[in-house]
Amino acid sequence: MRDFLRTNALGLAILGLSVVSARAEERSFLTLDEISTTIIGNSMTGQAKDGGGYTEYYAPDGMIRGHSEKGGAYKARWWLRKEDNLMCFKYGDGPFDAGCTRLSRSGDKVDFVLMDGTVEGSATLLSGNPKKL
Q1: Any alpha helices (H) in the chain, and if so which ranges?
Q2: Which of 18, 47, 100, 102 is the most exposed place for a label (fewest CB within 10 A)?
Q3: For residue 57, what is the domain's CATH number?
């Protein structure tokens, strides 16, 4: 996960799945309140671009506790950018290790959407912290 962000010049693809083009007008995005009640205090899981699986827990204190099949345990930070309803992530100290994205949800699927409408990654939402991260 962290390695993927370092290779992404925009630092916005926290989940690193296959890039799928989508128009921003064709989807609705989570508000800050919806992010707070849907994502925070819960986990997401998926496949990273390198092919390994991962799970991340988004703790209410702004910490991300994750585990990837290829990299093991890691910690990161999240925060909400109020002026434009973005969820932001920081996975390291490098200039490309942080970024913000819009979130779109359909059932338990969450898409991470760039400002141009490109879906940069997707994940499956899990209730709570089932992996005890």
Answers
A1: 2-7, 32-38
A2: 18
A3: 2.40.128.640
**Structural domain count of the chain:** 1
Integer Cα distance of 17 and 119 in angstroms? 9
Is 133 within the bounds of a domain? no
| Across 53-57, average pLDDT | 96
pTM, entire model? 0.79
Q: Residues near 43 by Cβ (< 8 Å), separated by ≥ 6?
A: 55, 56, 57, 58, 125, 126, 127, 128, 129, 130, 131, 133
Q: Is residue 110 part of a domain?
A: yes
In this structure, what are the phi and psi dihedrals at residue 108, rounded to the nearest 5 degrees?
-95, 5
The amino acid sitting at 6 is: R
pLDDT score recorded for residue 96: 84
